[in-house]
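User: structure tokens for this one?
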Amino acid sequence: MKNKVMIVDDEPDILESLKIILERENYEVTTVNSGKECIERLKDGFKGVILMDLMMPGMNGFDTIKEIVNQGFINDVAIEIVSGMGLKDSLTLGVMEPYIHDYIEKPVDIKELIHSVEKCYNYLNAKNKE
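Assistant:
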């Protein structure tokens, strides 16, 4: 299975720059600009790592994660938050925390991002072998 990453962010510059970085690391990258579109891609069969922005119009990142869990897609994905909100050490993540594998603050450190995505893939691969 080719390693797939979905980037969910409403900022076109973030989508494009993260896509370029991850494609250079041989990931198959899907970009979507809304939580609703993320859910549609999951319905279409996407499995892999999701890099989720929190602050998006309409369905924000928290609502999107709730929907991923409610619709049963959580077993096929590993979610990482990529946000400028500064919540890494915050209790604001609350009930979402069990579903979030990492939190990367914007501006993104490229090495940290790549390492984090690799960790998520190790988790998914181990989980699929169970």
